Amino acid sequence: MRQYRHMSKRRIYDDELHAQFVMFSCYRRRRLLDHARARQVVMGLLATELATHEGICCGFVVMPDHVHAIVISTRKRKPSRSSNTCT
After folding, report:
1. Which end of the chain is more exposed for a tag (fewer CB within 10 A), N or C?
2. Residue 8 falls within a domain, yes or no?
C-alpha cells in the first residue's frame, strides 16, 4: 500500500458515542455526483459501511462534488477505524 506524505497519521477516538460530522469529496473535486446512479452508489456504500461498523446516519447532503453526513457509531471503539475504511 502506498503512503502519501500529505495524509495525516491522526487517531480518532470516540468514547462518548457522540455524533460526528463527516465530509468527503470526489477526486480533484470533480462533479462526479451529478448523476443519480452515482449518488445511489455512494449512498449504498455509506449504508454498507455504517451497517458493518454498527453506525447510524442521522442526516446527509449530497452535493455534485462532495458529501456531508452526520453519523453515530453505536459501538465504542478506540481508535476509530470506521472513518478510514473507504480510502
Report:
1. N
2. no
